[in-house]
Amino acid sequence: MKHSTMRLSIETMNLDFVKKVEALSGSSVRRCFQCGKCSAGCPMRSFMEHPPNRIVRFLQLGQYERVLAGRSIWYCASCETCTTRCPNKVDLAAIMDALRKCSWDAKGPSKESYVQLANRLFIDNIRTYGRQYEMRLAAVFNVKSGQFLKDLMLGPKLITKGKLKVFHQKNKNLAEIEQIFKRIEELRKKGEAP
Amino acid sequence: MTPAKKLLSYSYYPGCSLHASAKEYDESTRGLFKALGIGLQEVPDWLCCGATPAHNVDELLSLSLCAKNLSLAEGVEGDLAVACAACFSRLKVTQHHLADNETKRKQVEYAIDGTVNLAKPVKHLLEILAKDFGLDRLTEAVQKPLAGLKVACYYGCLLTRPPEVPQLDCVEAPTIMERVIGAVGAETVGWSHRMECCGANFTLSRPGVVLKLSGSILDSAKAAGADCLMVACPLCHGNLDIRQKEIEEATGQRFGMPVFYMTQLLALAVGVAPGKLGFDSMIVNPLPLLREKQLL
Ligand code: SF4
Ligand code: SF4
Fold it and tell me: Counting C-beta atoms within 10 Å of the first and last residue's C-beta, which end of chain B has fewer, N or C?
């Protein structure tokens, strides 16, 4: 995959996809001149098959499939090092966010997108409780991802240290929080928000 | 006659972790501010800011959650004090972003059914201590100088990034943590991994990533001769403290490096009773080190 030939033609270039990523991220990919500074500082580089600068290059060439294939976008830690250092103000961290959204919308969950599963459970907690409920987050994640034994040893220790709460207090303004979620869904349905 | 000292008072957004896994950060923040005579009043019914997961999944949601918090904070007087590096970054990013994006601001205002408060200054505790309160006054307040304690100040990702937003200090070579802890007498070490990512929220989904990245951070701090790490982010704390034993098992190295929240060390120095600083809820026991340095 990494060294396979890339054919560039009208058929393989999906520029609509690139436009969507640019709109979602509010960042242009055309500014990039491939200096590689983003990748040089990326702490997750060794976990990715395509370093951040290559992702931008693929986008410039409209290589939608190549960008979404593999695990690079799911291994970005949102540390913002790339965005901070880019000499051309390419907001690569925001582009990574946009790519994750596109991939999830197009392909749904996958083994590589485990991290997004954790993210979604985190958001479910906000909708249900208004705040994070760390114990539930860890428990549900482990069940849903099939990693039943993971962190089993860590849990009891954290509970005795008072770090994980078994019971949870709910916010008083849950109805207002629910309304935020509903209104965003409504905006999207009407096509008034990306 | 000395000029009258301005009375400082802040509204306070603790964020979810400070009410749970990072309760020692909350306790020590309150203790420190009380000792320094700085007012701190919690924003009622604040909600989760969404941290990294929210913008990973849905940017509009992330902006809306933060905007809702900013509007709740309007009800409490004073600039908004934030302890968690991630909450701080998200709240600032939201203000910054909505200030120059009218379309997004309208969407967010519809979602929260109210106006967005772009004017209230959002400040990290470091900024309040270094700039508003002042390093000289901090030094004056010291009762137990942290002399001889070699601290590696760990910034992590979000205290200073993205570059245009927090404006806390220089993005590539900040010194604000060193200056603040130096003001109470601690020694700071120069080291390579001050701003390297700890693995962040991969801690839940891919702990292997955390073991590797946080392992290098601990390794670098140890090599620089640090006795302990000092952090300002509950997630970094979790990765470096809670997972330290696992990291030791995975790498075969022994670190035994206590990881303090910045306010725990500062509060200790200004005379807050050690029993109120949550040292017992840290996984890597800091008591032997503090005793050895005669700080307990
Ligand atoms: S740092 Fe910016 S210009 Fe350089 S390769 Fe990365 S995105 Fe392109
Ligand atoms: S934000 Fe993501 S892509 Fe950018 S440097 Fe950090 S981990 Fe790498």
Answer: N
Report pLDDT digits (tens) over A1-46: 455 677 777 777 888 999 999 999 999 999 999 999 999 999 999 9
ipTM, interface predicted TM-score of the complex: 0.87
pLDDT digits (tens, 9 = 90+) for B208-222: 888 999 999 999 999
Best mutation target among B205, B245, B247 (most A Cβ atoms within 10 Å) is B205
Q: Which 6-25 residues of chain A touch chain B by CB within 8 A?
A: 24
Measured in Å, residue B38 CA sits from the centre of ligand 1 at 44
CA B293 to chain centre: 24
Average pLDDT estimate for B104-110: 95
Query: For residues B223 and A65, what is the distance between their CA atoms, to the nearest angstrom?
Result: 44
CATH of the domain at B275: 3.40.50.11810
- Same domain for B214 and B80? no
Q: Answer yes or no: do A119 and B17 touch at CB < 8 A.
A: no
Domains of chain A: 15-105 (1.10.1060.10), 113-190 (no CATH)
Q: Which residues line ligand 1 (CB under 6 A)?
A: A 32-38, 53, 56, 86-88, 90, 92
| Six token digits for residue B225 | 């001769």
Pairing type for strands B228-231 and B259-261 reads parallel
Average pLDDT over residues B42-62: 89
> What's the CA-to-centroid distance between A99 and ligand 2, angstroms?
13
Q: Which domain, by its residues, includes B251?
A: 135-292
